[in-house]
Amino acid sequence: MQSINDPYELRPGVPTVEVFRRLRTDAGLSDRAPEAVALGLPHTWYGVVLHHRGEPIGMGRIIGDGGTAFQIVDICVNPAHQGRGLGKRIMAALTAELDRRAPASAYVSLIADGPARLLYEHYGFQDVARHDSVGMFRPTGSG
Asked: Sheet of 69-77: strands edge to edge?
């Protein structure tokens, strides 16, 4: 519940294409092509947008098949608002929704960039490399 003096509000949903791209780049994440964002956002399993006095300043999403596999993506907070526990609010909302709706047997993953791993560890995420697994990716357009 938001207190009366709290200028931040976390709302379920996904941002517009333009806001999505701005939030990512403001936070130092890579930009995404507008066409790709327009295709991807409607497939969000669950998302939240963080607002400061009505202006979107952060977000987070869960994507996946709805049963066996989920991935937490696009966690970001505008740098002017970082250091206030807002990333924790986003993660708490996302993990609460996973706990509420995702099957207990589902695999939930994410990619931790830099010090963000400390935030994710707080929510039970562990390195997979120590289990003889390693996260991998393949950029599109690869042969």
From this structure: 8-12, 46-52, 55-64, 69-77, 107-110
